[in-house]
Design goal:
The structure is a homodimer of 495-residue chains.
Chain A (H helix, E strand, L loop, with lengths): L1 H10 L6 H17 L1 H10 L4 H22 L9 H19 L1 H5 L6 H12 L15 H29 L18 H29 L4 H12 L17 H13 L3 H8 L4 H5 L1 H23 L5 H16 L14 H11 L14 H19 L8 E2 L2 E2 L2 H27 L4 H12 L7 H4 L10 H15 L3 H4 L4 H4 L2
Antiparallel strand pairs in A: 1-2
Helix pairs in contact in A: 2-4, 2-5, 3-4, 3-8, 5-7, 5-8, 7-8, 7-21, 8-9, 8-10, 9-10, 9-11, 11-15, 14-15, 17-18, 18-19, 18-21, 19-21
Bound molecules: potassium ion (2 copies).
Amino acid sequence: MLDAACATAETGAMLDVRPVGYVIGLLLIVLGVAMALPLAADIIAGNGEWPTFLETGLLTGLVGMCLALACSNGVRDRLSLQQTFLLTTSVWLALPIFGALPFVLGTTQLSYTDAFFEAMSGLTTTGSTVISGLDFLPEGILLWRGMLQWFGGIGVIVMAMVFLPELRVGGMQMFRSEAFDVGGKVLPRAAEIASKISIIYVGLTFACGLAYSAAGMEAFDATVHAMTTMSTGGFANYDASFGVYQGVIEYIATCFMCLAALPFVLYIRLVNGEARPLFTDSQVRAFFGIAATLVATVAVTLMIVDDFAPEPAIREALFNIASILTGTGYASVDYMAWGGFIVAIFFFTGLIGGCSGSTSCSVKVFRYQLLFTAMKAQIRRIHSPHGVFRPRYQGRVVTDDVMSSVMAFFVLFVVTLGIFSVLLAMTGLDLVTAVSGAATAIANIGPGLGDRIGPSGNFAGLNATAKWLLAAAMLIGRLELMAVYVLFTRRFWQI
Amino acid sequence: MLDAACATAETGAMLDVRPVGYVIGLLLIVLGVAMALPLAADIIAGNGEWPTFLETGLLTGLVGMCLALACSNGVRDRLSLQQTFLLTTSVWLALPIFGALPFVLGTTQLSYTDAFFEAMSGLTTTGSTVISGLDFLPEGILLWRGMLQWFGGIGVIVMAMVFLPELRVGGMQMFRSEAFDVGGKVLPRAAEIASKISIIYVGLTFACGLAYSAAGMEAFDATVHAMTTMSTGGFANYDASFGVYQGVIEYIATCFMCLAALPFVLYIRLVNGEARPLFTDSQVRAFFGIAATLVATVAVTLMIVDDFAPEPAIREALFNIASILTGTGYASVDYMAWGGFIVAIFFFTGLIGGCSGSTSCSVKVFRYQLLFTAMKAQIRRIHSPHGVFRPRYQGRVVTDDVMSSVMAFFVLFVVTLGIFSVLLAMTGLDLVTAVSGAATAIANIGPGLGDRIGPSGNFAGLNATAKWLLAAAMLIGRLELMAVYVLFTRRFWQI
Ligand SMILES: [K+]
Ligand SMILES: [K+]
């Protein structure tokens, strides 16, 4: 029976989707079980909202169980590249479909469009929200929003460390070092890395929550905000986002947002006793170099143009640059009022992003480094036109394969931004809302620019088409574009 | 003496800039002599403005002569790559410096900032203007604006066919076919190609002028507009740009703008009896495919959303898409009023551009083709991870060198756009003006978006810093970025 299926797959009749269904089924069970936590939170808070999570948890878990059972006869250790591609996108589609249910059935009473948008925004760690009146929501829903981002965050790291290198998407194959070479055995390797990363991720989240708590945040808010900080997600428990926490909490958030945007593989090495790489890694240094330059520019502008005192200027510059550069998207103030220069800086800062293998998104620092390395090699050719200059990154030669993936990523990023901007404008949005909305979705940042979707706005007022488009853009951006686009090529489906 | 200089150059003491100075000197003499034409136009029109051109012509010619004489002892057939780079940028800096003089001394009485902006906008074929009241200007100044663009246009083609392939800038080395291999002998080859191209360029300009004239344009306007059409420059003789020519003239302009955006090498082959390549060239086909899709989208939108009758909808769609896609930048109406969707389409259309080796600018169709070819090769790797797939373009294998140059171009284009947007916003411009201003300058299109610099606006109201920034962006964009940036690397100046 199994052999027959394999033979079918090999002779090219059809793609065996059972391993994909099996993994999605297992993850849905996990998602359903996870709903026990907001259920418990609602029971403890005594707000009578817990039946929502009981219903959605049972539904999600049962669907997952059926799917897993139905597909269990197709499970194998080794996934083909096609199956891996299909799995990556399917997971990020299936989880929001069920993760949206509590928003529909709970007090928020969202339409399914809004609920799916919120769940996709959560799991992709984008953090754009359609819910207003956050301050008055029951604990369960707020915790669920935080948990979606937190799970999304660890999913992103595992994807970046196991799936994308295997799929050669966006130049991530550069990080397919000996230690992480999976040789097709994607799933066992994913589980192994996920467990290692989990310890670090849980530890950092715990530290972040404690720090928030010590600085005066209430325990529940500290928990949820720690989850959305470490996942660079950016969902907050208040309509004013971080506007309710001026002062020391902003410094703490800045620290942990930056920690969340560093390559998690360096933390694994730190735990293994190798502290050096964390300080010598060229990507980390470049990240902090970029951040420092931007913070200095913004702080000076705030002092000179907007008459800020030095401390608030530096604090707001630190917090907002960290928030946008790491793609977290917390807002402490309505920075649209700070003038065109700062708004323009913030827009382009969002297109930089954090480091590879972290929870942050966007183009990411290592891609810019690789691109500039390639340009340097080009300039060297001026003097020796026939010399061969191999671009190097962190001591290793960058292969043409990596370079062309990075290039493909960059081009697709810009082209995708253009296409989504035009499509969003088609739904009736003005140019700034359309372009910044597309950018914030693809780069998984959260707030856009302008009155409607800016730091003081909310995505609820957009029409349904725009919301589905933005949800699609979040998914495409989170999966580094190519992983999704490949599914739309005829060649992909040929076996 | 000459040997001593060569020896100096070879031992690395300093770069021999005399060949560069010599060529610039010669070109300044040509520019000075060319001022005889507007001089003549002013005499014929009898408006008493001719002394301006006598002064500036003599000044320019004399400076050129002195420079050429001073550098004549360093003239050689062969230029080093460094000298070629230096020459390319220097020419495009020196000509506007002197080309600006008539605007300062003539009736326009511009400040030098404004005059330089206008001259740079002319020679780079950008077509953004700071002059209002065009309708009342003397013939000489209007002709001079047209001539700057016309000379700029042929300069661009020669640069694209001889200089950029030699400099390996932006992937243009792909067009360094046997026939055009210069082996370092850039100058003789440039003169040879310029003379061949000139015949075609003059012929097409003449045909365009005749067509305009036959459709009812006055002879003088037909001459100037033919010059600014064939150079995809976009300077017009009226503040309303092409708004004064509704109807058949728009169709004629559409045709000739498209002709100006095709690879001129195909016209040479057409003259040599090879008509086929013009119709089978994949870049030409892609260009018309893109144009047709955009025109259809815009025309349908104008009919449905803006209640246009079919003929005006198709005409305005044809004219405006051709104008923006080829980077000409004529405006027939204030399309800002057509709604966000069309404005967004126009913005991103400007980032596509025409074909290589034409007078148009921006990213250009062949680069997108190459980038998508590379992505296709990537997708093929999914099925055969260890297969080697060489991207091919027009039957030839695309080398890694070409690919990395194209990639460098694309990345630099986006990064340059970002940096200039931020710098322009710093001078106090709003986001839409800053970003669209940077884009229109780098892509050498002409009009931006918004009230200030949109199709019905004018660049005169910007501050001086913004004007210098935009002039720099025009130069950088016109020279395909890398040709300018190389001069700012330390390595370039090491011999
Ligand atoms: K985010
Ligand atoms: K133009």
